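Worked Example 4.2. Read the sequence first, then its structure tokens.
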Amino acid sequence: MAKRGQLVFIAIITLVVALFVGVMYPKIAKAYASGEVTLKVVAAKDIALTIDAIYAYPYDIEVEYDVDLSKFVVEISQNDVKVKKPGIDSTAGEYRFVSIGGDDPSTTLNNPKKIVFRKENNELILIGIP
């Protein structure tokens, strides 16, 4: 009789997992098919590499990144760029960069249509324009 109870328990767990996959699959497929996942990954990489290039440039500089990210939140902190949808996002794009001289830019840009990177006196300033 103990084996029968175990089989019922395994069947219930299998049904719960199958139900979860069945509910989440269309949402994940829609995110990948719409191109949002690719945009988040590419934008995170572009922003991180732009920050790396700005840190490597020895003089003051201002660069505009004019990719429309108005559907997303851009979080830049602890040498990491994350582009995600507001709330919980399992398909967030993330990429690391290297800061120089202990400068750790930490900012959150909500729905930016354009991002302005400004380096003044070896300090990075990030401005999100809605």
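Now turn to a second chain, presented in exactly the same format:
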Amino acid sequence: MILVTFAGTRDPIAYDTPEEGSIVTLCRYLASRGETVDALWILSMDVVGRRHAQDTQEWLALEGLFHADHMHLVHQEGNPADHVAVTQFVFAVVQSPEFRRSSAEMAPIAFNGTSGTPAMKMSGFLLSIAGLLHGGQVWTVANPTFVAEGSRVVPAHLDFVREHILREQIRTAVHGSQFDTALNITREWVTITVHEGSRQVAGPVEHVLRAYQAQDLANYAEAKTQMMAIPDAQVFRDVTAQTVFRAQRRWLANADLSAPTENALNLVEILFAIARYQTQERYTDALARCRRLFEGIVYWYYQAHYQIDVRQPVSRWEEAWHAMLNRDHRSDHGTSLWALAEHVFPDWVETSETTAWHEEKTMLRQMMDTRNHSLAAHGMQPVLAKDVSTVYPIVKKLLVAAAPKTTGYILDYPLTQTKRQRVLQGLGL
């Protein structure tokens, strides 16, 4: 353990009582409990504080509580009542390499929240709330005038504030699809929570986060497995969150989602993956999904209307292709993906001859020419937000026009960011 403290005017001996000050009292208390303090850091910010820090160091050494090598005095000249200056000082000390080398790696950090000015005391509370004490505790030592002998040292429990911050961090991580981060924070949240109900939903929360992570990776089988492991009727705090969760579970359990052939359900899933990547500013991935959706629409259309799998070698469907052309009295534009799309565009968009649609087709052609979605393929120019914003509404319009059934799926899609957050809220986050 590392113990951090500011030096106050009652250290090492109180001027107004015959008792030792908070630093010495706390060190004796920790020793009596068998707590090993590997290093003591005493901080000061003015001439008076520096003198008391030095006196405390000498007293602790004389009393045999600390060896001189295990005590570190750090002084920074400044106003000890300046909250910003004090907070920046203590944060810099705790994060310094010298501080970490003074004890075992990731040792808990205890803080004496008694000595010093109100600003100095508050800095320890801020450390705890920010999660920088690494499992340590903020201690307070009461004036002996007001408490009974033996009850001066008490811990300051701030977990309820830290818990609130962790919940916010989990929600933020999920919004950015940073699920490994969200899972790690969740484990800390469950460890420190003051609510028994929160500990009871630890398992379901982890299953939900892993399901969302699997969905983002298009591993729908794993997402389904994680969702099915949750007894929803027992863990949700309100009916609305439970209803959203059940809709999500039905969506992920639908066999069409992971079917090898294109269908309305998995095309809508690709559409919303684009939106998620766009929110995360992963524009290269979003543009790649736009291309994937465009191809999927074309493949689905020919399969649904003509029972032709255009992804197979040409020799396997060329006869069916020409038969379809003759039947529909259409000219053969060729068998490239763009030619196939050109063949059916009039079926999808009523205003195919308008200037607006011609401009949209040009934009799509530019996207289709992007074979390898990398910086090199773009002439070292990155994919920008405007590139995705330009193409996304076009492919969405094509999807709805080609497969009207997708309209209902889009309106009722249960795995939007808002609905994900609603489920987590229903689990206590």
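Notes for the reader: Residues 329-335 have pLDDT under 50 and may be disordered. The chain has 20 helices and six strands.
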